[in-house]
Design brief:
This protein has 129 residues and is mainly α. It is built from 6 helices and no strands.
C-alpha cells in the first residue's frame, strides 16, 4: 500500500470513529432537552406528584410494569402487554404507541424523531431519582 492510500485509509477511519462517537452521544439523550420534549406529555401525564390525569402518572415509570400504576384505568391491551418500561421499551412505545401496544388508548401521535425520544427518556430517567 502506498503512502497516499495509507493516509487515506487512516483519515477514513478517523472520520468513521468521530461519526460513531457523535452517534453514541446523540443516542444517549439529553435530559435538559428532554424536559422541553416532556412538555408535550404534561397535559395528560403528571411527573412529580403521582396524580392521575387524563393519563397515568409517569413518576417512577422507568422500571414499572405497563398497566400497573394505581388509580388509572388502563386498557386491557396495556395490562396484557406486561412490559417493564426501560429505555428500549419506552423508545419502541413512543415511536409508535398503537403499533407497539395495539388497542391501547393513548391518543398521542408517535414521537418520530429518535433524538426526541432519547432526550425524553433521559429526562424521565433523571426525574425518577
Amino acid at each position: 500500500m502506498n503512502r497516499l492510500a495509507l493516509f487515506g485509509a487512516l483519515g477514513l477511519a478517523m472520520v468513521a470513529g468521530a461519526v460513531s462517537q457523535a452517534g453514541a452521544q446523540a443516542a444517549a439523550g439529553d435530559p435538559v432537552r428532554g424536559k422541553s420534549v416532556y412538555a408535550r406529555c404534561a397535559a395528560c401525564h403528571d411527573l412529580n406528584t403521582g396524580a392521575t390525569r387524563l393519563g397515568p402518572s409517569l413518576k417512577g415509570v422507568i422500571g414499572r410494569t405497563s398497566g400497573t400504576s394505581p388509580n388509572f384505568n388502563y386498557s386491557q391491551a396495556l395490562k396484557d402487554k406486561a412490559v417493564v418500561w426501560n429505555a428500549a421499551t419506552l423508545d419502541q412505545f413512543l415511536a409508535g404507541p398503537a403499533k407497539y401496544v395495539p388497542g391501547n388508548r393513548m391518543a398521542f401521535p408517535p414521537l418520530a424523531n429518535p433524538q426526541d425520544r432519547a432526550d425524553l427518556i433521559a429526562f424521565l430517567d433523571q426525574s425518577a431519582h
